From TrEMBL:
Its cofactor is [2Fe-2S] cluster. Residues 1-104 form the 2Fe-2S ferredoxin-type domain. GO terms for cellular component: cytosol. GO terms for molecular function: 2 iron, 2 sulfur cluster binding; electron transfer activity; metal ion binding. Keywords: 2Fe-2S, Iron, Iron-sulfur, Metal-binding. This is (2Fe-2S)-binding protein. It comes from Parazoarcus communis. It comes from the Bacteria. Belongs to the adrenodoxin/putidaredoxin family. PANTHER family: FERREDOXIN-2, MITOCHONDRIAL (PTHR23426:SF65), FERREDOXIN/ADRENODOXIN (PTHR23426). GO terms for biological process: P450-containing electron transport chain.
Amino acid sequence: PTINVIEHNGIAHQLSADVGQSVMQAVTFAGISSMSADCGGACACATCHAYLDEAWMDRFPPVQETEDAMLDIVPERRPNSRLSCQLVLTEGMDGLTLHLPAAQF
Ligand code: FES
C-alpha cells in the first residue's frame, strides 16, 4: 500500500510499502531519520512511536500490554499513539496516514 508519513517539521512523505511489512519497517526503509526504531521491532524501545490518523485506528489490532507499557514512557502519549513496529500493513491500506512526534524519547 501507499502510505503517508508526516514528520513533526511538516515534511510529508508518500511511501510504497508491502503487505506484511510493519509501518516501522516502511518508514525506516524509506530513510526517514526521525524514526530510529532502536530495537528493530521487538516492542522494547518506543522509538517507533507515531500518531495514527484517527480514521485508521480501528484498522489495526488494539494496543497490547507490552506496547501499552512502552507507550507510557514516550514524551507525549495521545489516544492515537501507537508503536509503529506493532502495526502490520494489510491489503486495502492505501492512504494510511501517520504523524511522527517531535522526539521519540
Ligand atoms: Fe522498538 Fe518499535 S522499534 S518498540
